C-alpha cells in the first residue's frame, strides 16, 4: 500500500441551525490522505476472524492532520468536486480523504447533506458519524447521506473518505466520482462564508509557546525555551539560540533544557558560552560552533550556579513528614508533604556551606567571592508567621555579615555592580513600614511589592520605590540601571530605574503582558516574550530602542481566529478609578441584545490583559457573550492605598464596586441584556461570587470555582489559610474579631442567596479545601435554592489535567447557556437528571 499526501484549504462556514431550511454548498476542501492499493489475493474464503473479504473494511474513518493544510481546491459552480479515473493511478482501489470546517458559537445541532456516487465514511472531529455502503453510476438525490449532530461551541472538522474503483468509468469518463456537501444554514447568514472562527479552549491550550528567554552577557546571542502541547495534552520542549542582530538560529536542542549563559566569570562580558549539567558533569557549549567541553566532574546532585572561580550547588534534603500512621505536628505547615525538606547551599562536592536545620537560598554572587543568601524561620505567634533573614558571606575568609534579620516582608536581594549596595524586593511593611504611604490606621497589602537600596557598609536603607505605584515582580541589575518587571494596573510592564537620576521610565515594549525578559550587559539589547489583549505570546527583541517581533509560534492558528473589539470602561467610586474592560463578540451587531458574563478576582493580583488565560474573555465572546472584566479595590498595581483596601475587608469595597460597575455598563450599553448577566470567579474570586449573591439579585446565574464560603474554616484548614489571612485579615482572628469571620462569610448569609449557583471544586484542593463548597452546597440545598455542585476528581486548586479541564470548561459553558441563553440542552446532556 502506498500513500500520497495532498492538501486543500478549509471551507469555513458560519453556521447552522436545526430548524433552518436554507442550504449552502461547501465551496472548498482540504485533501487528506490519498491511498492507492490493489485487491488482496483471496487464498481462503475467510480470515482468522471468520470474515470474508470486503473492500468496505478498508475505508478508514478520516482523521485530520495539520500537514493537510497547504493547498486548496475549489468546487465547480454547482458545488460539485470530482475525481477522475486518470487521477487514481494503476491500483485497483483509491481512498481519497477530503475535509472542511464549520464553526459554532453555541451548543447546537448541525445539519448537512453529503451527495456522492461512491462508498464513503463521514467523521466529525475524527469520530465516525455516518457512512454510505453503496456505489452508483451517477450522483442523484437518492445517493445523499444526512448528518445531524449536537456540537459544542468551537471549530469542528468534517472529514469524508471516498472509495474509488479503477475499473469503474474506464474510457473517456475521467470525472466519474463526485461529491457535493450542502449545509443547512440560518437565513440571516445564508451564503455568508467566513474564513475565521473564534478562540476555543483547544486552540488556546494546544500549540507552542515560549516560557523562558535569556540573553548572553556579550549581547550577541539570545536563547528561547519553548513548550508544545498536542491535542491529547502531551507536552514536549525545545530550546533555540539566535543572533541578536539578524535573529538567525545558530543552535537548537530538544533533549537538554537546562542550558544557562555563563555570566559569573572574570571575562563574562566577552563570552557567549552556555553551560549545563548532565549527570555529575558540567559542560560548556559554544552555540555558534556546537563545541562542547568538560568544565567539572563529580558534581553533587542539585541545581548549580557558576561563580567566578567556584561552583555552588543548591541541594535539597528530603524528609517525608506525612508517611507515618501517627504523625506529630510541630507547626500548622507540618501537615504539608515535603514541608520538612530543606534546601542547602553546598560546594560542588556536596559539602554544605552552613550547618543549620533551616533552608538557605542563594540570592546572588559578586566578583569578590561574596554571596548573598537568605534563610527563613517561623514564629507562629505573630504575623506574618514566616520571617526572612538575608546575609552576606565571604567565601574566602569564611566571614558572614547579617544584613536583614527576621523581616517577614522581605523577599530577596541582589548586588549592584558597585558591590557596595544591594537592591531588595520587599513589601511596603518591610523595615518597619519604611516605604509605606498608606493612611494612618490602614495596613499595607503584604502582596504589593516595592524596591529598596541598602548600603552594605552603613546598612542604611532607602525606599526608592516608595512613590512608585506598580507592584514589583522581578529586578535585573545592570551597571547604570535597574530593570523592573511589575504589575502595572492590568498590564505587566518593564520599567527602567536610573541609579544616577533616581527616575523610573516605562519601556515601550508594545505588549500588554511581559512574561519574561533579559537585558544585555551593555544595556543596548533586550529580549522578551509577551502577549497583547488580542494576540497570543510572541518573542521580541528591543535593540537600541526599537521593537522587533521575532517569533510568533501560533501565527498560523491566529490567522484563523476572529477576535472582536475590546474597550476600557472605568468609573469613579470610593475616591478612585475602578478600571475594567468590555469584550465584544467578533460578529457584534449593535441592534441585538447580548447576554453578559462578569469576571473578577477581587483578591490581590490584577485580572490582567492576557490573551491566553484560564478564563480568557475570548472563549466566551466567541459563544455570543459580552464579557465585562473588572479590577475592584484591593488589587495590586494601582498603588499602595488602593491595594491596602484588601486588608480586613473580605468583600467590603469590592462587592459594591463590582455591582456598581455592572449597573453602569448596562446603562451605558443598551445592547446588553440586563436580565441575562452571569458572573464567575475562582479562589478569592470564588468567594466574591458567593459573597456577591448575598448582596444583590442582578445576576441570572453565578459560578464559584474553589471559592471560600466560611472564612473561619478556610483560615484553619487550607494549607496556607492562616498565613494568607495574615495579609487579608491582618491581626484579626476568630477569637478577637469574630464578626469579620462570620458576617463576611457567604455561608452565614446563605439565606440571602437566590441566584442559581454552580459550585466547582477539585477533590484534592489543598489551598481552598473542598469543604468550602460542600458547606455552601449543603446550606443552599436545605434552603431549597437552585444550586449545583460538580467535583473534579484528583485535581487541586487549579484544573490542570488536559481532558478534565476540557470537561470542566464545558460545564461552565453549559451552565451559562442554561441560564443566560435559556437553553438547558447542553447541561442536560452533560448531567442528565436522575431520581434517587
Mean pLDDT: 91
Main pleated-sheet profile: 8 strands, mixed
Q: What's the helix count?
A: 13
Structural class: mainly beta
Helix content: 10-25%
Low-confidence stretches: 1-20, 169-173, 187-194
Please indicate the percent range of residues in DSSP E strands (runs of 2 or more).
35-45%
Rg from alpha-carbon coordinates: 31 Å
Count the E strands.
Answer: 48
The best one-word shape is globular
| Distance separating the two termini | 56 Å
Describe the protein.
The structure is a single chain. This protein is mainly β and 836 residues long. Helix content is 13%, strand content 39%. The protein has 13 helices and 48 strands. The strands form 10 sheets. Strands 1, 2, 4, 5, 7, 9, 10 and 12 form an 8-stranded mixed sheet that branches. An 8-stranded mixed sheet has the order 41-42-44-43-45-46-47-48, with helices on both faces. Strands 3, 6, 8, 11 and 13 form a 5-stranded antiparallel sheet that branches. β43 (594-599), α4 (618-621) and β44 (626-631) form a beta-alpha-beta unit. α8 (711-717) packs across α9 (721-728). It is globular and about 95 Å long. The two termini are 56 Å apart. The model is unreliable at 1-20, 169-173 and 187-194 (pLDDT under 50).
Amino acid at each position: 500500500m502506498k500513500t500520497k499526501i495532498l492538501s486543500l484549504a478549509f471551507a469555513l462556514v458560519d453556521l447552522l441551525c436545526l430548524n433552518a431550511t436554507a442550504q449552502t454548498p461547501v465551496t472548498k476542501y482540504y485533501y487528506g490522505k490519498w491511498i492507492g492499493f490493489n485487491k488482496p489475493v483471496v487464498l481462503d474464503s475467510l480470515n482468522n476472524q471468520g470474515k470474508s473479504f470486503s473492500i468496505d473494511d478498508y475505508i478508514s474513518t478520516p482523521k485530520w492532520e495539520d500537514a493537510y493544510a497547504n493547498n486548496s481546491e475549489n468546487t465547480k459552480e454547482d458545488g460539485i468536486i470530482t475525481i477522475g479515473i486518470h487521477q487514481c493511478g494503476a491500483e485497483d482501489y483509491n481512498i481519497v480523504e477530503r475535509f472542511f470546517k464549520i464553526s459554532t458559537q453555541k451548543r447546537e445541532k448541525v445539519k448537512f447533506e453529503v451527495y456522492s456516487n461512491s462508498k464513503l465514511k463521514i467523521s466529525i472531529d475524527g469520530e465516525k458519524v455516518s457512512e454510505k455502503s453503496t456505489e452508483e453510476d451517477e450522483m442523484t438525490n437518492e445517493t445523499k447521506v444526512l448528518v445531524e449532530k449536537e456540537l459544542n461551541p468551537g471549530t469542528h472538522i468534517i472529514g469524508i473518505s471516498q472509495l474509488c474503483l479503477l475499473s469503474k468509468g474506464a474510457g473517456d469518463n475521467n470525472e466519474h466520482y463526485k461529491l457535493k456537501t450542502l449545509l443547512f444554514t440560518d437565513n440571516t447568514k445564508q451564503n455568508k462564508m467566513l474564513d475565521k472562527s473564534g478562540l476555543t479552549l483547544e486552540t488556546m491550550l494546544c500549540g507552542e509557546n515560549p516560557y523562558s528567554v535569556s540573553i548572553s552577557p556579550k549581547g550577541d546571542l539570545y536563547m528561547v525555551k519553548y513548550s508544545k502541547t498536542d491535542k491529547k495534552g502531551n507536552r514536549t520542549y525545545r530550546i533555540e539560540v539566535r543572533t541578536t542582530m539578524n535573529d538567525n538560529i545558530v543552535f537548537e536542542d530538544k533533549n537538554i533544557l537546562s542550558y544557562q549563559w555563563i555570566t559569573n566569570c572574570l571575562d563574562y562580558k566577552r563570552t557567549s558560552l552556555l553551560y549545563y549539567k548532565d549527570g555529575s558533569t558540567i559542560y560548556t557549549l559554544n552555540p555558534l560552533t556546537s563545541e562542547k567541553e568538560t568544565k567539572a566532574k563529580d558534581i553533587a546532585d542539585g541545581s548549580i550556579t557558576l561563580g567566578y572561580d567556584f561552583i555552588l550547588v543548591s541541594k535539597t534534603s528530603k524528609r517525608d513528614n506525612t508517611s507515618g500512621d501517627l504523625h506529630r505536628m510541630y507547626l500548622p505547615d507540618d501537615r504539608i508533604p515535603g514541608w520538612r525538606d530543606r534546601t542547602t547551599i553546598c560546594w560542588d562536592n556536596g559539602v554544605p556551606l552552613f550547618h543549620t536545620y533551616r533552608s538557605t537560598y542563594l540570592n546572588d554572587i559578586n566578583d569578590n567571592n561574596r554571596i548573598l543568601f537568605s534563610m527563613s524561620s517561623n514564629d507562629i505567634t505573630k504575623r506574618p508567621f514566616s520571617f526572612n533573614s538575608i546575609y552576606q558571606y565571604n567565601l574566602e575568609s569564611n566571614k558572614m555579615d547579617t544584613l536583614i534579620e527576621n523581616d517577614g516582608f522581605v523577599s530577596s536581594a541582589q548586588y549592584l555592580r558597585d558591590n557596595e549596595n544591594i537592591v531588595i524586593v520587599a513589601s511596603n511593611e518591610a523595615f518597619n513600614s519604611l516605604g509605606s504611604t498608606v493612611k494612618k490606621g490602614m495596613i499595607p497589602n503584604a502582596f504589593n511589592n516595592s524596591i529598596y537600596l541598602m548600603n552594605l557598609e552603613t546598612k542604611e536603607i532607602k525606599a526608592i520605590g516608595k512613590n512608585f505605584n506598580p507592584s514589583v515582580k522581578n529586578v535585573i541589575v545592570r551597571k547604570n540601571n535597574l530593570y523592573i518587571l511589575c504589575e502595572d494596573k492590568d498590564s505587566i510592564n518593564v520599567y527602567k530605574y536610573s541609579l544616577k537620576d533616581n527616575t523610573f521610565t516605562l519601556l515601550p515594549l508594545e505588549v500588554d503582558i511581559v512574561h519574561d525578559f533579559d537585558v544585555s550587559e551593555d544595556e543596548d539589547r533586550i529580549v522578551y516574550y509577551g502577549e497583547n489583549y488580542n494576540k497570543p505570546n510572541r518573542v521580541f527583541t528591543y535593540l537600541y530602542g526599537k521593537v522587533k517581533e521575532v517569533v510568533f509560534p501560533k501565527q498560523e492558528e491566529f490567522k484563523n481566529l476572529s477576535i472582536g473589539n475590546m474597550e476600557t470602561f472605568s468609573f469613579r467610586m470610593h475616591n478612585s478609578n475602578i478600571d475594567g474592560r468590555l469584550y465584544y463578540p467578533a460578529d457584534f451587531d449593535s441592534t441585538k441584545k447580548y447576554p453578559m458574563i462578569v469576571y473578577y478576582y477581587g483578591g490581590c493580583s490584577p485580572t490582567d490583559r492576557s490573551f491566553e488565560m484560564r478564563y480568557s474573555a475570548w472563549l466566551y465572546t466567541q459563544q455570543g457573550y459580552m464579557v465585562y472584566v473588572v479590577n475592584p479595590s484591593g488589587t495590586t498595581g494601582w498603588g499602595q492605598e488602593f491595594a491596602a483596601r484588601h486588608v480586613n475587608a473580605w468583600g467590603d469595597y469590592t462587592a459594591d464596586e463590582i455591582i456598581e460597575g455592572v449597573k453602569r455598563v448596562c446603562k451605558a450599553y443598551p445592547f446588553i441584556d440586563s436580565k441575562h448577566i452571569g458572573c464567575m470567579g475562582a479562589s478569592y474570586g470564588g468567594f466574591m461570587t458567593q459573597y456577591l449573591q448575598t448582596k444583590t439579585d442582578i445576576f441570572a446565574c453565578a459560578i464559584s470555582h474553589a471559592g471560600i464560603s466560611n472564612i473561619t474554616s478556610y483560615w484553619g484548614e487550607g494549607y496556607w489559610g492562616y498565613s494568607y489571612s495574615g495579609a487579608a485579615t491582618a491581626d484579626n482572628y476568630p477569637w478577637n474579631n469574630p464578626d469579620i469571620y462570620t458576617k463576611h462569610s457567604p455561608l452565614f448569609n446563605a439565606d440571602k442567596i437566590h441566584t442559581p449557583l454552580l459550585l466547582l471544586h477539585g477533590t484534592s484542593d489543598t489551598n481552598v479545601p473542598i469543604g468550602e463548597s460542600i458547606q455552601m452546597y449543603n446550606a443552599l440545598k436545605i434552603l431549597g435554592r437552585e444550586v449545583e455542585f460538580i467535583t473534579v476528581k484528583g485535581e487541586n486548586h487549579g484544573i490542570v489535567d488536559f481532558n478534565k479541564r476540557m470537561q470542566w470548561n464545558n460545564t461552565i459553558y453549559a451552565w451559562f447557556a442554561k441560564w443566560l441563553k435559556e437553553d438547558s440542552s447542553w447541561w442536560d446532556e452533560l448531567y442528565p437528571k436522575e431520581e434517587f
